[in-house]
Amino acid sequence: MNNDILLKILQLDSLVRFLDWTERVRIHLYRGEKFNSTTPKILAAYEWIINENWEPPVMHYGEDRFQYFHDPELDLWVETENYLNYFPEYKPELTKLIF
Prior knowledge:
By secondary structure, the chain is α+β, with helices and mostly antiparallel strands. The chain has five helices and three strands, in the order αααβββαα. The radius of gyration is 14 Å and the shape is globular.
């Protein structure tokens, strides 16, 4: 698996929160070549990122310790929990990953 795409899975999870903590750890270990298996959710996210050619938005933590992504069209920083409200076209596919 490509480490860049695995990183994108972690970034996507920061926006949508579909992985549990063990899956996040598994990706970190896989990227560090200390583990060599994944889960169906990780594989589904991996394929989705490739098929959609998805690129993560710029993100940062604010002084309030919340994580934000940048919406370049509005030139606005938005809390990550609102990501799917700004990109509803992804909602049907990504909500499948959550469950």
